[in-house]
Structures are given as C-alpha cells and as structure tokens.
Design goal:
homodimer, alpha/beta, 5-stranded mixed sheet, 11 helices, globular
C-alpha cells in the first residue's frame, strides 16, 4: 500500500497521520500542541519531526517502504493562497504571509500541497466518511470558529482566490453581533463555541436560576459550549434556550446553503456535534421552515463520521486531488 | 448560420428570439403579455405561435433554412425539474406541476430544454455579456423577485434538485420581513422592486416632506421602485435613504455569495440596475465591508450587458449546454 502524509494544523494543536491512498486506513496518527506563539519556523520543525516519526512507525508496522510515501497534504486555517502555498492571514496562529507549503516541503523532503482546514475536513467526509460518494456536498466545521467546504462532482470549490466555502462568515443578521472578522452578524458570531458561551453568559445576566452558574464554580468566564450542552441535556431552561437559539442560527445558515448550492449531503463536524440530536433535531426543523421544499427533500443533514481525524485524512485527500495521483 | 430559439417566460410577459449558435446575434426578437391567468396550454399555444413567426422572419431575413433551427430553450420561473421538464410551482404564473417542456416541444416540433429564468440570464451574461469568459460567475436578477444563477467553469450549478442559485431566498435577517416564499428575512423581502416600494411607503408614514408623495398623485399604492430611484436622483432625502438601505441589503447578499462561491464576476441585472451607480457605489462599499479581502480583490461587480434580451439568449445557451451541440 502507498501512503500520503496528512497534517491538520490548528491554533491549539496539530495532528499527523499516514493515510492509505485508497483512504481505507490511517497509520500512526499522532498530535501535539501547536504553540503558535512560538516562531512559525519552529512550528514547522516540530511538524516535520512528527512526520518523520509517523513515517518510521508506518514503515515498522506495515510493509511500506520509504518510496511508498507519495507526498504530504496540510490543512491550515485560511485565508490562504494555494498557488504559492502561502498562509495569507491566520488570526488563530498569528501568522501573516507565511510560506507554509514550501517551508514544510523543505523540512520533510515530501512534495507538499496546502489547502484550507475546513475544505480538507469536508473532502475527507466525501472521500471515506458521512458524505461518501455524493455529488454535491456542503461541510461545516463548528468549533472555535465556523469553517466550511463545498464539493461539487468530487472536487472542492475553491473559487477565484481560495475563499470559497467560508460559510461561517456569511451574514444572518445585517446589524447583528460583532464577529472577529470585523463584520457584523456573521453566522460564526452566533454559533461558534465561544459565541454559544457568550450568549449563555448574556442569558444569565437576568436573575433566573440555572445550573450553569454552579457548573463553573461561579466563574462564568470559564463557561464553555460544552457546559451549555450538558446543562441543556439535564433540563436546565436557560441552557435549553441557548441551544434552541444555536440550532436556529445554524439552521438558518444551512438553509441558505441549501438554496444556494442545493447539496445532497450537509456534513456537520466539530464541537457542536457533541450535542447530537439536542442540536440536530431543531436545526433540521429550522432548515425545513426556511429552505425550498425540493432542496429540503433532496438533502441529508448528518454529523461527520470521521471525528477528529477528518482533517488529517482530508489533507491527504487534498494532496491526491491536486496531484491527481 | 444555425440558430436556437430562446424563450423567456415571465409572469408579466414572454419573449422569443432566434439566437445564432455562436451567440453573435439574436434575430426577430419579439415579446407579448403572458396573460398567465389564462390556461397554461393557452400560454403555450401563443408562445408556439410566436416561435413560428420568429422562425419565419429569421428565414426571410437571413440565409437560414428550416433545418438550421437546432432546438428551443425556455427559461421559466422555478422551482422546476429539468429531468422531466416540469414547472413544479410558479407563483407568478399560478402553475403547479405543469409539463411545460413537453407541451412546448409538441406545439413547436423543436427539441426543447427547460431551465430556470435567472439561470438562463446568468448563462447569457457569461456566454456573450458582462461576464464573458469568466470561470466563476454569480448572477442576480433583481426585479419583481430576486433570482440568481451560479456558473462554475462554464457550467450552471443546478444542485441536487435544480434549486441552486436561489439567492433571493437566503436569510439576511433571521427574524426579518415576511417573504412571499413563506420564510422571514429573505433578501428578496428587502430588495426586490415591490419590497423597495414597501419600504418607501413605510418611510413616508412619518411626517417628513418627500416628493414621493406627489410623484404618484397622492396615491402611495402606485409607488414603484422606479419612483424611488428617480426621487433619490433628484435629491429627495427619504428616497435616498431607501436607496442606501437597498444597496446595503443587496451588498450583504452579494458579500455572502463572495464568501461562499468566491466568483470572479457578479453580474446584476433587472430593474434595480436602472438606478446605476446610485445603487452600485454603496453596494460595492457594503461588499468591501463584509466580504473577505481576497474575495473582494478577486471580483468585479457589474451590471449586465444584455438588458432585457439576456433571458432569451440564455435560454438558447441552456439548450446548447444541455445538448452539448
């Protein structure tokens, strides 16, 4: 079997694995903290070191030879430029105009392809996950931010300047909440993990009783989206309302995508999917209310099947797609 | 030269022309009222009669022979099903589950292809108009409703059930104005012609002076978007604010498309473009505020070049695209 190294680079941690070219398995999956506050070259050196270790472990565990590693795909937060492999701006990494692809290629000796992290996750779910084989796919990764990817006939839509699929930064309230991108009313400003925690804190500004106050030992700054899901599951009324609103916002964003792209599958991934049907059921109801009937009838809205490995698998898939191996 | 008959079917009128297969010209362009309140078969009979007349006049005016007409494309309001040529629901026509393609094919004897009217208009602007030769194009037709089309690498994006491109029915205010589609906060509910007139009437509910009161002879029910543009051009403050808001709403919708599709060209067509730079300048400013910089830098936002003939030319192009002539 031949392999492609997949790298998933996030603001908090990065992950590496050796992905079989048929997508059937990932060998020697590993991850480590990014420490983005250090120098970008330092991050690249540590990624390259993990790549070597993943290759060695794959060779040891399988019949693979050093020549069986075709190359490396890396998914990174955007905006980026695929043509010259530059990370243009990455607020979560604190990088600007960094030649990530070429630095990593030099450090590993492997032919390297760079793509957006949410694009990679969507590509993985289409390749071997929840959207396998579908012609038209929309992926949304909902965590610290909201990323997205669009696949049409088996190919990622990149657009004119590699921005396509930035679903988190579409306006759902023209005069709404301020977003980190500088805009007002972005979907991300309502339904990312931190936005969910913010809205819960605001809901607690009244005097109503809520277990959210005690879950964090009284320090509401420590409140996370996960606390909100857990409290909602335990019947807490404040948390249930925050979750309902989250589903409504996400459903609005998904409905917009249904009327624009009309996909067969919408794959939801990231932290928000931990909430399961608590989010998915009202989200689907909102989509049914908002999107055209033929678009609703044609779509499946499902959680991702690949979990935290989607980024690594998809980065390898992005390499294979670009090199048309 | 060989020709394809293009038909543009709207709620108010329909138009027919003979479009040269290289898109270089349209012969014998003609139009007539739709009278949609009559039977659908009656509308088809009158379209077929105009098709015969357009063919006869084209034969008389050019060296064309009857065999030089390859077929017919028709653009109609959606939702529709291309596979079996059905108009599923057309509120502006009062039709439901009408086999438009087959009825027109029988009535004209020409091989017929059905597509969405806004898709056709966008395809025409890509083929021979303002977006000629661009790889990624978004078209918006802003009139009684707001339709849209998306072209990727020279092909219309239809999606899983022919709904793709329904830009007018994307939410820009989750709890906003009621839309005719049943949803709340659709772009169309803010920036279509009738929505512009509605917002102007609401603005006049205060006591402020405005020439809009006198332009319609005191009957504000007769107020149209065109009155608003004209008054704004003459410096009327109420009208100027309505136009500014319209540009802001449209700019929000366009910015969302930039972040989702990342096109090279956005073509705006329909009544709203009569307002010219009065709308376009603040619309572009709103897009710059809201969309990602690389997407803004990559796009041209321009009025359509084909005017009221876009639908006919694009319907012919849709025939050529589907039959791959």
């Amino acid at each position: 079997m031949r392999y492609v190294i997949g790298v998933d680079l996030g603001g908090t941690k990065f992950a590496v694995g050796a992905v079989a070219v048929d997508g059937s398995r990932t060998e020697a999956f590993d991850s480590a903290p990014t420490h983005a506050e250090r120098d970008a070259d330092d991050v690249v050196a540590r990624i390259a070191s993990m790549v070597r270790s993943v290759m060695d472990r794959t060779i040891a565990a399988t019949a693979a030879a050093p020549d069986d590693f075709l190359g490396l795909g890396i998914g990174a937060p955007g905006p980026l430029r695929r043509a010259d492999g530059m990370v243009v701006v990455a607020p979560n990494l604190g990088w600007r105009d960094y030649p990530l692809r070429d630095r990593l290629q030099s450090a590993t000796g492997l032919a390297t392809v760079l793509d957006n992290d949410a694009n990679c996750a969507t590509l993985a779910e289409w390749w071997v996950g929840a959207a396998k084989g579908a012609t038209t796919v929309v992926g949304m990764t909902i965590g610290t931010g909201i990323g997205g990817g669009i696949i049409l006939e088996g190919r990622l839509l990149h657009g004119a300047s590699d921005v396509a699929g930035e679903i988190g930064h579409t306006t759902i309230e023209t005069s709404g909440r301020r977003c980190k991108c500088g805009n007002y009313g972005c979907l991300e400003a309502y339904a990312s993990g931190p936005a969910i925690a913010d809205r819960a804190r605001e809901a607690l500004e009244g005097n109503g009783a809520s277990m959210l106050r005690t879950m964090t030992g009284g320090d509401l700054r420590a409140l996370t989206a996960e606390h909100v899901y857990n409290a909602a599951r335990d019947g807490d009324e404040v948390a249930k309302e925050v979750v309902r609103d989250t589903a409504r916002y996400l459903g609005t964003g998904v409905a917009n995508l249904l009327n624009i792209v009309n996909p067969e599958v919408v794959v939801l991934a990231g932290g928000v999917t931990d909430a399961g049907e608590l989010i998915l059921a009202p989200l689907r109801a909102e989509v049914r209310k908002r999107a055209f009937r033929p678009a609703v009838d044609a779509v499946r809205i499902v959680p991702g099947a690949l979990g935290s490995r989607a980024g690594v698998i998809g980065a390898a898939a992005a390499f294979l797609a670009e090199r048309r191996v």
